[in-house]
Amino acid sequence: CFLSYSLCSAGRSRKSAQDPDSGINSLQNYQLNKNPSFTLAVKESPDGKKQVELVLEKSLDREEESSHQLILTALDGGDPVRSGTAKVRIKITDANDNPPVFTEQIYKVSLRENLPKGSLVFQVKASDKDEGLNGHISYFFDSIPENTRKLFHLDPENGEITNTAILDFEEKNEYTMELEARDGGGLTDHCKVHIEILDENDNAPEVTILSESSPFPEDSPPGTVIVLIKALDPDAGQNGELSCSIQHNLPFKIISSS
Ligand SMILES: [Ca+2]
Ligand SMILES: [Ca+2]
Ligand SMILES: [Ca+2]
Ligand SMILES: [Ca+2]
Q1: Which residues belong to any copy of the Cadherin domain (predicted)?
Q2: Quick one: which of 19, 31, 171, 255 could link to 73 by a disulfide (CB 3.0–4.6 Å)?
Q3: Distance, CA 33 to ligand 1 centroid (Å)?
């Protein structure tokens, strides 16, 4: 028994088997091993030859199964029945049917201010189930204020965000950027990165004299304001809390007012 087959382009392949016997001993039937995706359609051509077509039953998903191994059996009607088999291996080529997907929709990052330039701030990650270019992801800034873009760099290949300048809590203590992941076929996903800058105690208090009464009359009653001082520390929380004091051996005291 001799089997030949040819593969057609539209997911349908036609096969014909030849059996040199005639009558009941000639080719009677085809069988296919059980596979949910394919069935056989047997057709008889005008010259009596049986042709069999491999028909796609449901859409294929390469991400689930990248190839199918089919065994086609041709049976004759003789006794004993004689059969011939052909193995058909169907390799499924990839279609770009999966967009990239970020591991999170919103990433929250906390950073200490004064991080050295070029430090790794964060790495975003997206995955794509397709293969080759269809699964190759590049990362881009999508929506980002100009002053934020100047401070951060995004590596398109690995999604690493680094700082290109020193980040100053006292200047700005949070940044939000929108990133895009794009596969080689143009499908995209988006995420947000929210960066919070944490304070470091990098400022000394500043003392300014606002007004002073000089010279100061000797008969001034106790409690008279002599000097008005302003003290400021731009750091946050405890880093910015301050207290003022004066030498103990002087006839003056400091009173705080808001
Ligand atoms: Ca695919
Ligand atoms: Ca894809
Ligand atoms: Ca600072
Ligand atoms: Ca600070």
Answers
A1: 16-102, 103-207
A2: 31
A3: 26
- Rounded-to-integer distance, Cα 96 and Cα 240, Å: 55
Among all bound ligands, the one having the nearest atom to the CA of 198 is: 4
- Residue ranges of domains in the chain, CATH in brackets: 2-91 (2.60.40.60), 101-198 (2.60.40.60), 202-258 (2.60.40.60)
CA of 171 to the centre of ligand 3 (A): 7
Q: What is the pLDDT of residues 223-233, one digit of tens each?
A: 888 899 999 99
* Residue 196 three-state SS: strand
| Least distant ligand from the CA of 64 | 1
Identify the nearest ligand to the CA of 167 by its number.
3
Q: What angle do CA 127, 131, 133 make, to 5 degrees?
A: 90
C-alpha distances (whole Å) from 135 to each of 97, 182, 210, 257 are 10, 9, 65, 64
Question: Considering the chain, what is the average pLDDT of its residues?
Answer: 88
Cα 195 to Cα 89: distance, rounded to the nearest angstrom: 51
